[in-house]
Description:
By secondary structure, this protein is mostly beta strands. It is about 15% helix and about 55% strand. Keywords: Signal.
Amino acid sequence: MRAFGVALVGLISLTACTQVTNSGAGTNSKNEPISGSLTYNEMGTGGTFVLRGLAGYECTGTAVFDRTDTSTFPLTCTDGRSGTAMSTINRFASQQTISYRLSNGETGSVALGQI
């Protein structure tokens, strides 16, 4: 019976520390569709953002969330560009938007699903 209790506590601990990925879509300044995903760390205090464009590039960055609902973080792209992204959480609407600006002047935003 004790072994069952220990196993149950272990199972509950494992399910409480899973990573969650939130995905969404948007457009860039050229009015091209883009997609993005944010995989939160186990504690929900940050995550890895991946932006994908039609031309086949990917930009990645790591966001860190503190007590505010806004986080700014750098992006690095597979095609050599870099930039900055800003995550904004709207807790009333349960949504998150990530806006970005790349070194070539491209801008855009991705609305992620419900948080």
